[in-house]
Amino acid sequence: MTTTSGPGTADDTDAAGAQGASGTVDDPDAAGTDASEEVDDLDELDESRSSTGAPDDADPPATAVTGSKSGNGGNGRTRKPAEPEIVATTEPAASPPPSDEPGGSAGTGDSADKGKKPTSLAMGLVKLARPKQWAKNVLVFAAPFAAGRLDEADVMRRSLLAFVCFSLAAAGTYYINDARDVEADRLHPKKRFRPIATGVVPVPLAFVLGAVLLVSAVGLSLTVRPELAATVAGYVVLTTAYSNWLKHIAVVDLVAVAAGFVLRAVGGAAATPHIDISVWFFIVTSFGSLFMLAGKRGAEAAEMGDDASAFRSVLGAYSHNYTSYLRAVTSSAVLMAYCQWAFEKADDAGDMSFPWYHLSILPFVMAVLRYALVLDQGDESAPEEIILRDRTLQVIGVVWVLVFGIGVATA
């Protein structure tokens, strides 16, 4: 009995062969490397490297169109080789835009615009001021909050003005720092997209506007309180010294940046009369800043690899073992200091119906441990980026504010 093929069997097989020949052939060269930005506070250094468009283990086009039998295998016919002109390849897929997320993809979070050149001078000036970094200045509210006086209208007004003063001072520092480091930034995989490095903001203009912002910060602080003006002026002197000399000396650069955080916390108390700062509060702020900066410096050194010293000589001094040691020492110090501060606050409050200050130790410890975990998982972002992105850390922070705030309100 002779068996015949079903309708279209041979033709379908030929079509399948032709389809294999004309399918998409990914070019390995299409695999792209994404390179994507707080300096002192100042530098946000994380580079994301990912590859896309890797070809699958598909059969080569030639074997898909030659030397095979027809689909039903019963008629013994040999299929005609496909004509060479039907073979086509698609254009290599374009590499995605740069991403600043470690191992992430483009278009998520802030990565969509970090690798792009600003389109205008106005946008360049705004980006150069780093508005996202102003989140650090919320430290000016810490001392009034801990003193239980943030609900007073005058105290809130003074604290808000202190926030503005430190934001102006920080922006001026960024302008001058980036103008000085323009050549080094152009060699960096991510900082090369900064407004001055791309040429959107001229270097002379950055110097002039930076000086204006610094003078404005000190002048505005004088209208609030002389003590605040002295604190802001100290911050300006510190950041200027950092940009010129201190950032080139290992360990000293860490202490200088941490001192900037401490001055913010001190500024909140200096803006308002009769707000005292506890010694333990001072220690918590100091070692907490060092803890976050140790992780940031380690990430910077790891990101740049063998080129770390070429970009900034001090980065070569921060090995993985040393930064791990710094994180262990500073996290231990900040945890012990906070416990002492919580017990001191409870003693000052006298008899309380519930130990709210003692209870606040739990979310604080969880926050420190969570931050350490994020660092250990390889997140190379700046501290403010980690805090603004990590939802778990944000929830823990809100819980701490609620528990500590209830303690302040019921004291």
What does this structure look like?
This protein is mainly alpha-helical. It has one domain (about 110-410): Orthogonal Bundle (Tetracycline Repressor, domain 2), CATH 1.10.357.140. Helices cover about 55% and strands about 0% of the residues. The chain has helices at about 10-20, 60-65, 110-115, 120-130, 140-145, 155-180, 180-185, 205-225, 225-245, 250-270, 280-305, 310, 320-350, 355-360, 360-375, 385-390, 390-410. Helix 8 packs antiparallel against helix 9. It is globular, with a radius of gyration of 30 Å. It starts with 8 loop residues before the first helix and ends with a helix. Mean pLDDT is about 75; it is low at about 1-80 and about 85-115.
Task: Give a nutshell description of this structure.
57% of the residues lie in helices and 0% in strands. It has 411 residues and is mainly alpha-helical. It has one domain: Tetracycline Repressor, domain 2 (Orthogonal Bundle), CATH 1.10.357.140.
Task: Jot down its keywords.
single chain, 411 residues, mainly alpha, Tetracycline Repressor, domain 2, 0% strand, globular
Strand/helix succession: HHHHHHHHHHHHHHHHH
Uncertain segments are 1-81, 84-114
Using only C-alpha atoms, the radius of gyration works out to: 30 Å
- What is the percentage of strand-forming residues? under 5%
CATH superfamily: UbiA prenyltransferase
User: Major sheet, described briefly?
Assistant: none
Number of strands: 0
Count helical runs: 17
CATH topology: Tetracycline Repressor, domain 2
- Write down the domain tally: 1
Estimated structural class: mainly alpha
- Distance from first to last alpha carbon: 101 Å
The CATH class designation is Mainly Alpha
- Summarize the amount of helix as a percent range: 55-70%
Overall outline: globular
What's the architecture in CATH terms?
A: Orthogonal Bundle
Mean pLDDT: 73
